[in-house]
Amino acid sequence: MKNERHTLVLFDIDGTLLIYKDGLPNRMFSEMVLHFFGKDITIPKGFFSGKTDKAIIAEVLELAEVPDDELKKDEAAIMDWIAEYVERETTPDSFHLLPNVKNILDILSKKNDTTIALLTGNLERCADIKLGHFGLEDYFVFGAFGEISVDRNDLGPAALDRFAEVSDSASVHNEDVVVIGDTISDVLCAKHIGAKSIITLTGRTTREMIEPYSPHHIFDDLSDTEKVLNAIYN
Predict the structure, then answer these.
(1) How far apart are CA 129 and CA 137, in angstroms?
(2) Bridge partner list, 10
């Protein structure tokens, strides 16, 4: 692989591959604050879009007026609690698997010149649980996950470093890295590493919201296989 062109495709999860059917994230984080700090809060709609779980934890606790030193002391336990909650409270029926996702992953996984990985705000254990509901976890060679940083832009460089570790190639050309997601944060993350961005309007972000950020491609969903593959490789 060392002297060959190689494509690295980095997928977001929530809003891109699958989406919650109800308001479980709001309930989960509200219950987390109550469980750890005894405070009852209301989390605004759309609070989670495009953020890492590490950032969401920090912002939810700021909303609850929990001091930073309390967060530092309890952060590892909070992350474990969140993963256990997702494992306990979700089933395949908790999500919609979004259109044509499995077919796209099937096709990409069979290409010797392509590596599929995750770039997601989810904690690693949460990502495994969600994808495992649909048998998708084995498609992804590695991931950059939400415990890495509060700044989603830090996940892109982490993904490139991980690719270098698992690949026979020392690097991949920027133009051959593709971030597929559903939020403005996915576009900014792609720009941060000089990658191509493909946005699917299957989350909360509208075309009007995303167009000013100039992603390379915008699709209503991933159902047109030929157009999605052309966007990835051309």
Answers:
(1) 8
(2) 117, 179
Beta-bridge partner residues of 218: 199
Torsion sign (Cα): 111, 112, 118, 124: positive
Q: Torsions phi, psi of 177, nearest 5?
A: -105, 130
Cα–Cα distance between 91 and 18 in angstroms, integer?
A: 13
The two beta strands, 196-200 and 217-219, are parallel
For the chain, list the strands marked E by DSSP: 7-11, 18-20, 95-97, 114-119, 143-144, 177-181, 196-200, 217-219
Return the pLDDT at 116. Answer: 97
d(CA 23, CA 2) in angstroms, rounded, equals 46
Task: Give the N- to C-terminal CA distance of the chain in Å, as an integer.
Answer: 20
| pLDDT of 1 above 50 | no
What are 101-131's pLDDT values in tens digits?
Answer: 999 999 999 999 999 999 999 999 999 999 9
What sign does the dihedral 193-199-204-205 (CA atoms) show?
A: positive
4-61 pLDDT, tens per residue?
789 999 999 999 999 999 889 999 999 999 999 999 998 988 788 899 999 999 999 9
How far is 227 from 223, CA to CA, in rounded Å?
9
Task: Print burial letters for 120-132: b (CB count within 10 Å at least 16), e (below 16).
Answer: bbbbbbbbbbbbe
